[in-house]
């Protein structure tokens, strides 16, 4: 055998076939994951509606055909709640509009300064009436977010004036003027904005709109005091969770990656709080500030931040008390204006168990022996006025 022959290595003919098989298996695995993650095999259907058989609800169904039409999502990513959340919630549309508004500043009794942006209509309302949408954005959001700008742009063109609350501490270029920022259910700033609109536009009627955390705030605001419902035509709540106490349990689960979303939102809350640390922790001892900041840095969930920081702004003694008193589920039965509650069936944040709350509000199942006086209250005051869409 020559030296050259000793350097020759032979490859078994079975190896290329084995490599091809591994490639096919890898491709099949990737395709399977894509199909599952993008939810491509799910069927489309009309929205799931819960409502009472009333003339008002029939008019709503007749005038808003989207409520009864089958939802046809965009191809590839449109069936995935995760991708919809990422693309629309974070990135927004390809070319988000930039409506022109005026920023208003409202001094609060405790020294805080509430801000909201006011957008005048750019067209006539088809009824000829003066109608203002008072809008409350989601957690840590404000009037400059893509989804808010897009919503306002559509509303302006349809003849609506829009007032958008900027959550206290959410705008990076607006300093806090008191040791307090927005919380899950504090309605003070929203009430101040609504009060301003009522005084400045004596003839206007209001449509109240809230997104996510903002949905909780607006429903709680209306239910806190009957006078808050004066001159309100209706309320629309979009994708809220109704009860923070019930939601906290689901937020720690990995189902639908809620635990991951919880971590991301907690990280964003950390950034907001830390950007205002000099205003929020003023007056406390160095030891207390170090302790609060230490717990903030190590927090990995919204519940930890709420327990260590947020509940203290309003003097709540425990996280349970904070969530109980800040959740609209304890106030929403007092709402006597038409109420449209909208939730996405594939919302990765709002667990399906939480949707029992709006379904109970929207329809009362006859029971010869009601479980409590609250059931009767819901049947008498809410069922004919509430409309739930999932």
TrEMBL record:
Short name of any one Pfam family annotated for the protein: Abhydrolase_1
Top enzyme class, one word, equals hydrolase
Gene Ontology terms: cellular component: sperm flagellum; sperm plasma membrane
Q: What is its EC number?
A: 3.1.1.23, 3.1.1.6, 3.1.1.79
Q: What keywords tag this UniProt record?
A: Cell membrane, Glycoprotein, Hydrolase, Lipid degradation, Lipid metabolism, Membrane, Serine esterase, Signal-anchor, Transmembrane, Transmembrane helix
Stated membrane topology is:
Single-pass type II membrane protein
The residues covered by the AB hydrolase-1 domain are 132-354
GO biological process terms held by the UniProt record:
acylglycerol catabolic process; medium-chain fatty acid biosynthetic process; medium-chain fatty acid catabolic process; sperm capacitation; steroid hormone receptor signaling pathway
Molecular functions per Gene Ontology: acetylesterase activity; monoacylglycerol lipase activity
Family classification: Belongs to the AB hydrolase superfamily. AB hydrolase 4 family.
Give the function comment from the record.
Progesterone-dependent acylglycerol lipase that catalyzes hydrolysis of endocannabinoid arachidonoylglycerol (AG) from cell membrane. Acts as a progesterone receptor: progesterone-binding activates the acylglycerol lipase activity, mediating degradation of 1-arachidonoylglycerol (1AG) and 2-arachidonoylglycerol (2AG) to glycerol and arachidonic acid (AA). Also displays an ester hydrolase activity against acetyl ester, butanoate ester and hexadecanoate ester.
Q: What is this protein called?
A: Monoacylglycerol lipase ABHD2
């Amino acid at each position: 055998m020559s030296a050259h022959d000793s350097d020759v290595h032979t490859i078994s003919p079975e190896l290329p076939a084995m490599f091809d098989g591994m490639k096919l298996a890898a491709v099949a695995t990737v395709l399977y994951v894509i199909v599952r993650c993008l939810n491509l095999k799910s069927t489309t259907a009309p929205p799931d509606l819960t409502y009472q058989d009333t003339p008002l609800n029939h008019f709503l169904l007749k005038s808003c055909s989207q409520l009864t039409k089958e939802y046809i999502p965009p191809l590839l990513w449109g069936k995935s709640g995760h991708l919809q959340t990422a693309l629309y919630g974070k990135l927004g549309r390809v070319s988000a509009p930039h409506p022109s508004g005026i920023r208003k500043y409202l001094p609060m009794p405790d020294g805080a300064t509430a801000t909201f942006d006011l957008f005048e209509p750019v067209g006539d309302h088809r009824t000829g009436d003066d109608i203002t949408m008072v809008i409350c954005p989601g957690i840590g959001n404000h009037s400059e977010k893509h989804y808010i700008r897009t919503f306002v742009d559509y509303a302006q063109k349809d003849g609506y004036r829009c007032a958008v609350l900027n959550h206290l501490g959410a705008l990076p270029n607006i300093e806090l003027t008191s040791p307090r920022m927005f919380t899950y259910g504090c309605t003070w700033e929203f009430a101040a904005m609504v009060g301003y609109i009522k005084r400045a536009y004596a003839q206007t009627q209001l449509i109240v709109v809230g997104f996510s955390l903002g949905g909780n705030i607006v429903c709680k605001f209306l239910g806190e005091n009957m006078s808050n419902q004066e001159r309100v035509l209706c309320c629309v709540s979009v994708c809220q969770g109704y009860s923070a106490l019930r939601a906290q349990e689901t937020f720690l689960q990995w189902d639908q990656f809620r635990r991951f979303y919880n971590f991301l939102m907690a990280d964003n809350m950390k950034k907001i709080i830390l950007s205002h640390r000099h205003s929020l922790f003023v007056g406390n001892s160095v030891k207390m500030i170090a302790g609060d900041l230490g717990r903030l840095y190590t927090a990995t969930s919204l519940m930890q931040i709420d327990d260590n920081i947020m509940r203290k702004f309003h003097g709540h003694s425990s996280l349970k008390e904070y969530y109980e008193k800040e959740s609209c589920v304890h106030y929403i039965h007092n709402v006597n204006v038409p109420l449209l509650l909208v939730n996405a069936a594939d919302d990765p944040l709002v667990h399906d168990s939480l949707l029992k709350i709006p379904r109970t509000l929207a329809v009362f199942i006859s029971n010869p022996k009601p479980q409590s006086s609250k059931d009767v209250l819901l049947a008498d005051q809410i069922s004919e006025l509430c409309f739930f869409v999932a």
